[in-house]
Specification:
Elements (H helix, E strand, L loop, with lengths): L2 E11 L5 E10 L3 E5 L6 H8 L7 E6 L2 E2 L12 E4 L10 H11 L4 H15 L14 H13 L5 E4 L8 H18 L2 E6 L2 H7 L2 E6 L2 E3 L5 E4 L1 E3 L4 E3 L4 E3 L9 E4 L5 E3 L9 E13 L2 E7 L3 E6 L1 H6 L7 E6 L4 E3 L1
Parallel strand pairs: 3-8, 3-9, 6-7, 7-8
Antiparallel strand pairs: 1-2, 1-4, 4-5, 9-10, 11-15, 12-13, 13-14, 15-21, 16-20, 17-18, 17-20, 18-19
Helix pairs in contact: 2-3, 2-4, 3-4, 4-5
Length: 331
């Protein structure tokens, strides 16, 4: 499948305080892309480039196989619907808020009514049609904000922290809407979230943004700390984790959950990291089992159903986890 976006060595510089550095990302059409990372890491800056609000200072950006320049950058902006973290709803009814974009484009009234009705039906907010938009709950307001851009039929929907400040029921509903927009409308959806598990579940691809750098990596086991050079280990403050040799600087590490081996007894192997722990949680994840393990730090591993049965794993079980230093991303 051909990429919808291709970012090749993209950089964006805000000055000495912050920059996106050497970003390489491919985004395929009709996929859900989840972007995770702490506040101030560069997530919103990346969204501004993907929504054609900011032109990168270096690198090459392709969209629909067209190389973008400062001359043609703006023309693609209308193909993207961007819902910001704190969407602003206008005075008036929900219907009028969703209708506004079509009205500004001077779309015929009968067509406007039909399109707004279709969007409200899709989002499950028909009953809110005549409500004052400023009286809505957080979850309701987020759906209306999505409706405002969806009614214009963008190719790409960008959602900046759409689940922030929502209760669990509203989060569950919004997650289902995101999946429906992909499956029923064939939309490409790019969203940011602080929840790494949510990113893994929703996203066809997951990118992590740390200090302006973008990694295509499942950063479930993400730890902060520093290097203990005497032991060639990363010290999280709770656990010493052996890392690859010749690392001179590190503030974070991430361990691929699929590379963590679970055993009932300590393994006699070449894996340099081996810790005893207790299983504290288990959940189904796309046909595999995600296991939470409490050691000095909290780890997550992903195993098959077969491994689960063979090891007779259950919550509360005492186990060992082992992984190679080569399975650790250091940055």
């Amino acid at each position: 499948m051909k990429s919808l976006y291709q970012l090749k060595n993209i950089s964006f510089n805000y000055g000495i305080d912050f920059s996106l550095v050497d970003v390489c990302v491919d985004i395929e059409k009709s996929n859900i892309i989840a972007i995770v990372g702490p506040n101030g890491s560069g997530k919103t800056s990346l969204l501004n480039i993907l929504s054609f609000l900011k032109f990168p200072h270096a690198g090459t950006l392709f969209y629909k196989e067209v190389e973008l320049s400062s001359n043609n950058f703006d023309q693609f902006r209308k193909t993207v619907g961007y819902v910001q973290q704190s969407p602003y709803l206008l005075r008036g009814t929900v219907f009028k808020n969703i209708e506004l974009g079509l009205k500004l484009k001077k779309v015929d009234k009968d067509i406007r009514v039909k399109k707004v009705a279709e969007v409200m039906q899709l989002l499950g907010i028909n009953k809110l049609s005549n409500r004052d938009a400023r009286t809505l709950s957080g979850g309701e307001a987020q759906k209306v904000a999505i409706g405002q851009v969806l009614v214009l039929d963008p190719d790409v929907l960008i959602l900046d922290e759409p689940f922030t400040h929502l209760d669990k029921d509203s989060i569950d509903e919004l997650e289902q809407i995101v999946l429906k927009l992909k499956e029923e409308l064939d939309k490409t959806i790019i969203l940011t979230t602080h929840n790494q598990y949510q990113a893994q579940w929703l996203g066809d691809d997951v990118y992590s943004v740390i200090n302006g750098k973008v990694f295509e990596y499942q950063m479930i086991n993400l730890f902060s700390g520093g290097i203990d050079f005497k032991r060639n280990a990363f010290n999280t403050g709770k656990q010493l984790i052996i890392i690859p040799e010749d690392i001179n600087h590190a503030e974070h590490i991430a361990i691929d959950p699929k590379q963590i081996v679970i055993s009932r007894d300590k393994l006699d192997s070449s894996m340099q990291n081996s810790f005893q722990g207790k299983i504290t949680g288990m959940a189904e994840d796309n046909g595999r089992i995600k296991i939470s393990i409490a050691s000095d730090e909290e780890f997550q591993a992903i195993v098959t159903h077969k491994a689960l049965e063979e090891l007779s794993l259950s919550i509360g079980a005492e186990i060992w986890i082992s992984f190679k230093s080569s399975s650790i991303l250091v940055f």
